Amino acid sequence: MHLGVFVLGTGNHHAGWRYPGAADSFLSLKGIQTIAATAERGKFDLLFLGDGLAAKMGDHPSFLVRFEPITMLAALAATTTHLGLGATASTTYNEPYNVARLFASLDHLSSGRAAWNAVTSSGPAAGSNFGRIHPAHDARYEVADEFVDVVRGLWDCWDDGAVVANRETGRYVDESRVRALDHVGRFFQVKGPMTTARCPQGRPVIIQAGSSEPGLELAARTAEVVFSVVQDFAEAQAAYQALKSRLHRFARTPSDVALLPGVMPIIGRTDAEARDKLNTLQSFLGPTSALTMLSGRLGMDVSGFDPDDLVPDLPLPDTSHGFARAMLSKARRERMTWRDLSNLTGAARGHWVICGTPAHIADTLQEWFEGDAADGFNILPAYFPQAFDEFVDEVVPILQERGLYRRDYTGTTLRDHLGLPRAPNLLFD
Q1: 10 CB contacts (<8 Å, ≥6 apart)?
Q2: Closest Cα partner for 19 from 348, 385, 293?
Q3: Quick check: 421 and 203 in contact, CB under 8 A?
Q4: Which residue of 73, 266, 319, 350 has the fewest C-beta atoms within 10 A of its own C-beta?
Q5: pLDDT per position as a tens digit, 358-412
């Protein structure tokens, strides 16, 4: 299986930073370097940093105060050797040329370990920071579809061996191995080439996280890693099949894309100890903090509902379909109240929580992996560094002993870790 770690410096739990001994900042280079070293010690495929383009008071602490992620990963490239380095860059509030250069540069700096999470910004508040009206859901994906194609095209404008640097002749570039993109589309006009040579991976790995119909289409056509939001085994199996069954239409195979659900493991020496940890974390949640997060996930203000009322059937919002669908489905299935759903959101921001001993955690991950519900997992430690250390030191060895996870890296690039070949050059090959 594949493993990534989703890093929020204050922990993925909304109140993780309040746990005794936990880190309380997402602005500590040393702290994030320590997390990266732990991930590499655990032979993780990938360290991932999300991003947000608007600060909303009451939101998760690491959403409010954070580094720009690609800058942070450039620093981590200097202190890691194998770990994949992934970051979000919005297709709604960026330009393809800039994104292509940033991730190509990161791929060179890291010797082939860069990954771009191509997202359509779901939060409408971002628009006010860019002087724009936030586009509707499907319109965002129309832009994203072209945006990703332009970025991939720019990565292919330089062929291998284009930089010759011949001291005797004075020839620096073989111009026959460089082409303009000359893209003219509905949303973008980009001539190219960009000012960065062919990437060590050919192209950086593309991550996608959409679960709506256009999101799944974009993922099936372009992504090598897909992050998903799950709460239920059967629904995860259905989502796995829904993605994998689309790949053949784009001349791709199921092994070309790794589906990694997000999961927050709460680990204890006994099940009771693990539950006590979770209860302690939940006790730190303020009366409005989780409601702010839940309102954002559902695209509506839920603070006016009676917390003890059952969550009614609600339409999917114009924000993130994945989070809303998983959470509303769980609420219906388990007859949850608004208080229940708020607590769930405060725990893992809408992601799946597993609570128990290391063996129980490993058993559950194995069941999902072998049951075609996941190709691996995006691990969301509730707090750092202890919760992540526990997973690496206590769960990973069990997975290794069972032959489910690597004991050491067998390659140097992120594509190597994912079992993918170097990306071909579609403009030259």
Answers
A1: 16, 17, 22, 23, 24, 25, 26, 60, 61, 62, 383
A2: 385
A3: no
A4: 319
A5: 999 999 999 999 999 999 999 999 999 999 999 999 999 999 999 999 999 999 9
Q: Work out the angle at residue 276's Cα, subtended by the Cα atoms of residues 282 and 34, and round it to the nearest 5 degrees.
A: 75
Look up the domain containing 71 and give its range.
Answer: 2-265+352-417
Question: What does the alpha-carbon distance between residue 275 and residue 273 come to, in Å, rounded to a whole number?
Answer: 5
What whole-number distance in Å separates Cα of residue 27 and Cα of residue 387?
Answer: 19
Number of domains in the chain: 1
Identify whether 286 is part of a domain.
Answer: no
Give the closest residue to 200 by CA, choosing from 38, 427, 411, 428. 411
Position 238 in a domain: yes
Please give the model's pTM, rounded to 2 decimal places: 0.90
CATH number at residue 228: 3.20.20.30
> CA 151 from chain center: how many Å?
18
* Alpha carbon distance, N-terminus to C-terminus of the chain: 31
Which residues, other chains included, contact 50 with Cβ-Cβ below 8 Å and sequence gap of 6+?
Answer: 6, 8, 69, 87, 88, 117
Section 122-147 average pLDDT = 89
